């Protein structure tokens, strides 16, 4: 049985930011979110360049991915994004230091490849149980892992936004990569920390389970994040694993990737 993704994507500037430094893309088989690093030069350029690299990967790959190493393909796209950031910063000194988080999912029938760097997250809702698939590359997550603070303390820690890993011009990326089985009925959420800085796991779980329509869930998550103060840009993709064939879904770009023109 061939499987596919039925997805929806949305992005919002939030209530505290002047511009949207998030970018996202969703197609029939590739989902990606990049959160340009706030406080750094031109995070919107970094995120848009990164999403462009993943979109180009989607275009390059053959229709049949059975012989494709999904993790290697995603890692290659991230390396391409790093090259683009470095070249752009080399041409424009004002862009030096720009960086972004990145998460991506690539589907081949019943296989899902996943990539993660930074503190944007991938969640899986399966059989009513929510799992955070990714683990944040942050100072506070490292402190939690070492037992020095609790997960609850991490939510209000003054260094909760400090990244240990990200995609940054002039640096070799070190993503986490994995592959999972795709199962009909699975629901995935890819989101920037504009969602998770406001909503805890229980709220995310409730929103994901509240509606069968991915688009309705995306809008609900954005609304809830804004109701919670909207302290950051908000971007999310909700995708259901379904039996294919579905009507072919063209690529949708959101955030900075849709607003600014970038070239490799």
Automatic annotation (TrEMBL):
Any Pfam family hit: PP2C_2
Domain PPM-type phosphatase, chain residue ranges per copy: 6-241
InterPro entries hit by this protein: PP2C, PPM-type-like_dom_sf, PPM-type_phosphatase-like_dom
Superkingdom: Bacteria
CDD domains per the UniProt record, alphabetical: PP2Cc (cd00143)
Name the UniProt record assigns to this protein: Serine/threonine-protein phosphatase
């Amino acid at each position: 049985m061939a499987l596919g993704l039925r997805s929806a994507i949305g992005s919002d500037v939030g209530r505290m930011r002047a511009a949207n430094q998030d970018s996202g893309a969703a197609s029939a088989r590739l989902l990606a979110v990049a959160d340009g690093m706030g406080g750094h030069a031109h995070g919107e350029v970094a995120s848009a360049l990164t999403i462009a690299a993943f979109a180009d990967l989607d275009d390059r790959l053959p229709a049949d991915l059975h012989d494709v190493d999904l993790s290697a393909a995603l890692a290659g796209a991230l390396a391409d994004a790093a090259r683009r950031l470095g070249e752009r910063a080399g041409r424009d000194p004002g862009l030096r230091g720009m960086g972004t988080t990145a998460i991506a999912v690539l589907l081949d029938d019943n296989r899902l490849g996943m990539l993660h760097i930074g503190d944007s997250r991938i969640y899986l809702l399966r059989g009513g149980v929510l799992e955070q698939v990714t683990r944040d590359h942050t100072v506070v997550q490292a402190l939690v892992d070492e037992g020095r603070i609790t997960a609850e303390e991490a939510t209000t820690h003054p260094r909760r936004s400090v990244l240990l890993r990200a995609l940054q011009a002039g640096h070799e990326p070190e993503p986490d990569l994995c592959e999972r089985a795709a199962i009909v009925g699975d629901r995935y959420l890819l989101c920037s920390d504009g969602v998770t800085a406001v909503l805890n796991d229980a709220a995310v779980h409730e929103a994901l389970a509240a509606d069968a329509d991915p688009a309705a869930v995306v809008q609900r998550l954005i609304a809830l994040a804004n109701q919670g103060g909207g302290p950051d840009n908000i971007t999310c993709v909700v995708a259901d694993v379904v039996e294919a064939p579905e009507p072919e879904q063209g690529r949708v770009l959101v955030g900075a990737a849709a607003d600014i023109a970038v070239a490799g």
